[in-house]
Write a structure and sequence with these properties.
Elements: E1 12-16, H1 31-43, E2 49-51, E3 54-61, E4 64-71, H2 78-89, E5 96-102, E6 110-113, H3 122-131, E7 138-142, H4 153-157, H5 163-184, H6 188-195
Parallel strand pairs: 1-4, 1-5, 5-7
Antiparallel strand pairs: 2-3, 3-4, 6-7
């Protein structure tokens, strides 16, 4: 096991990025929220307590006690919520798994990374800036790029999926959820090989 046990009541924080409210619920930018919802459903964790400017819930995934978070700050200020929870639990970035949308990946594609830059994703940028670290493991969920260069990027990420893309997205979300226990065990390369596509 990569990480030693520690005294905090929480072993890991798992964050899904998105924008709050029904207006944004089915948009491309909310793929992180969608992944977190599927994860919460699988492990019977209710994410309904408002704390640190986020909807939160805690429970168990395998041997680990986890805090699930859906920041309610809107995407560009996600770091406010995430860093507040990290500070409370004295949680290092290596124990904070972030799931978010990636326009550079086609729908149905999912990538796992141990750390790295924000890749242009503004929620991830906010987390990196507020915590002053890039060492966050992450699951990037493909939502596809704009159909044309002149298509406004904000309009694109706030658009909904076509039926075909939604099927591909659902497959990627299932694989993201399946990968989480391996990532918590520190087996990121194994998770990459098994679930990235």
């Amino acid at each position: 096991m990569l990480f030693a046990k520690k005294s905090s009541p929480i072993d890991f924080i798992i964050v899904g990025l998105g924008n709050p409210g029904p207006k944004y619920a089915s948009t491309r930018h909310n793929a992180g929220f969608m992944a977190l919802d599927k994860l919460a459903d699988k492990y019977g964790i209710s994410v309904d307590r408002l704390k640190w400017k986020a909807l939160t819930g805690d429970g168990r995934i395998g041997d680990y006690r986890v805090l699930l978070m859906k920041p309610q700050t809107f995407m560009n200020n996600s770091g406010e919520a995430v860093y507040a929870a990290m500070s409370f639990y004295k949680m290092p970035p290596e124990r904070v798994l972030v799931m978010f949308d990636d326009i550079s990946l086609k729908p149905g594609v999912m990538r796992i990374r141990r750390k790295g830059s924000d890749g242009g994703q503004k929620g991830m940028r906010s987390i990196i800036e507020d915590s002053d670290s890039e060492n966050f493991p992450r699951i990037k969920i493909g939502v596809g790029d704009r159909p044309r260069a002149d298509f406004d990027l904000a309009d694109w990420v706030l658009s909904t999926f076509s039926p075909e893309d939604k099927k591909l997205l659902d497959d990627a979300l299932e694989r993201a959820v399946e990968a989480v226990p391996l990532i918590l065990d520190g087996k990121i390369e194994e998770a990459m090989g098994k679930y990235s596509k």
